[in-house]
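step: validate -> pass
step: tokenize input -> pass
step: predict -> running
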Amino acid sequence: MATKTQSIFRDLDLSFTINPLSGDVPVLKDINAVVFGMKSCLFTNNYEKPFNPEFGGGIRQFLFEQVDDITSAILQKNIAQTLENYEPRITVQNIVVQANPYEDRYDVTIQFFMSNNPAAITVNFFLERIR
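step: predict -> pass
step: emit ->
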């Protein structure tokens, strides 16, 4: 008898696009929910969430600093601390923040494990100022 795999982690898709079949707001599941929550934590500034002023990574503040290895190291530490404090669904294995001064941005790679998945998951994104 085959068992149906149930998703453990579920979040609302905050883009609030309407599902054309059901008419409801779509639900993110498992890896997509965790990655969305992780990015949401990182991109939320302090004092942005009502009644919880300490919440958030506030990594946007680093976009106005010099793009160099020192800021990359500070940004890496900030990301690690934020994920440790506010994302209990994951265990971070590695965080790499590369300064890319020629494109005026930081390339970020986060490798982590989810509590319900033994495989390592890698998320890549970049941080840049809007010109």
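step: describe -> DSSP finds two helices and five strands in the chain.
step: cleanup -> pass
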